Automatic annotation (TrEMBL):
Superkingdom of this protein's organism: Eukaryota
InterPro entries recorded: Pyridox_Oxase-rel, Split_barrel_FMN-bd
Identification of the protein by name: Flavin-nucleotide-binding protein
Pfam families: Pyridox_ox_2
Coiled-coil regions listed: none
Length: 260
């Protein structure tokens, strides 16, 4: 059995509260990032601006140099954006290692309904990455990253669309490559946890329903666009929808029985 690779604990990524829920495993953290359709990317817009900027972006973990690298190996984070956006301009102007950024992702898996408001919670998975972002300038790597990110929207979508991108599309699209320096994750699963004083209080236990409401992302039936000329929904689209609905439901319901 191979060794589990972990991110080093540093001031920026060490979990201080409920440390038993923390994970520094590359595989767990990268999986949360890759399964999140929206990543929240924060950065400092200017030294004179007191507020950090946070952008919702599309991204994916991967390695251009080692494309066969697995999810639990060191990977870069590729982010998709528009050529003139603020974060791209800052990354373009950055010197040295690149633009310092934080990438965050979270998924909710259940509502924890306890006897008291104090013990209400969620089942969830969250992850953060810290790293330095630079623009991808090599055209081969840029195309590879664009395919990686497109297929993260829906597997095999790149091949089943009009490719390659034309000059206008290539020039208007920018890919950020984040060299990750640290990361951490936090996972809560299981059921209700109540204080003994409340669990022993018959007046409370006989009046208050407790339990878990599983929460999971559901994909609906594909709806063709008004200009669509393909009669049937492609198998790769329909099978993905069915697979993800089953997978998401299974995870949320099984998380109730797990204890991380």
């Amino acid at each position: 059995m191979g060794k589990t690779l972990v991110y080093p604990k540093q001031v920026s990524n060490t979990v201080n509260r409920l440390k038993d829920r923390a994970t520094y495993d590359l595989g767990a953290i990268h999986s949360i990032i890759n399964s999140s359709h929206v990543l929240h990317v924060s950065f400092n817009p200017a030294p004179s601006d007191p507020f950090p900027a946070i952008l919702p972006m599309i991204g994916q973990m991967g390695s251009f140099d080692y494309p066969s690298a697995s999810i639990d190996e060191p990977l870069d984070c590729y982010l998709h954006g528009y050529v003139s956006s603020r974060i791209m301009n800052l990354a373009r102007a950055s010197e040295g290692e690149g633009l310092p950024i934080c990438v965050a992702a979270s998924k909710m898996d259940g509502l924890i309904l306890s006897l008291t408001p104090h013990n209400h919670s969620y089942n969830y998975r969250s992850a953060i990455l810290h790293g330095y972002a630079k623009l991808v300038t090599d055209e081969a790597e840029k195309l590879w990253a664009m395919e990686l990110i497109t297929n993260s929207v829906l597997p095999d979508r790149w091949r089943n669309s009009r490719i390659p991108p034309d000059r206008v599309e290539m020039s208007s699209t920018v890919i950020l490559k984040v060299r990750v320096v640290d990361g951490s994750g936090k996972i809560r699963d299981g059921g209700v946890h109540d204080d003994q004083k409340d669990a022993d209080n018959a007046e409370v236990t006989e009046r208050v329903w407790t339990g878990v409401v599983p929460v999971y992302e559901t994909f609906g039936e594909p709806i063709p666009s008004p200009t669509n000329k393909v009669k049937e929904v492609p198998e790769y689209v329909g099978s993905y929808v069915a697979k993800m609905n089953d997978q998401n439901r299974e995870y949320a319901t099984s998380a109730v029985e797990e204890e991380h």
